Amino acid sequence: MGDWTARAEVLADTSELGYEAAAIVGRCRATGLDSRSFRAVISATLVLGAHPMAAGGDPWGKDRDLVCAILDLLDEVAAKWDAHTKLCTAAAKPASPGPHPGGQR
Predict the structure, then answer these.
(1) Could you count the other beta carbons within 10 Å of the beta carbon of residue 16?
(2) What is the full per-residue pLDDT of the chain (105 aa) written as tens digits?
(3) What pTM did the predictor assign?
């Protein structure tokens, strides 16, 4: 049981992803983008447990850099979700019965 719990706790910790999302928001703000254009990233930052408006950063030099950062964040969230799904599926499987102590029946 401890192994499942430890793995679940690691998956439940989204603080690193939240900080990454907040950094993206900070750089968007530094670039002067209209907040409506990156509101999905703001929402993701909040869901991941970070404060999006507390972050600062350098302006985005190129649109491509911003898009790549968002796609990288999306990949990381998807990987965490995939690991969560696999853990839940594995935990839901019934334990296979071991050998019967009195021999076969």
Answers:
(1) 12
(2) 558 788 888 888 999 999 999 999 999 999 999 999 999 999 999 999 999 887 889 999 999 999 999 999 999 999 999 998 998 888 888 766 666 666 555
(3) 0.80
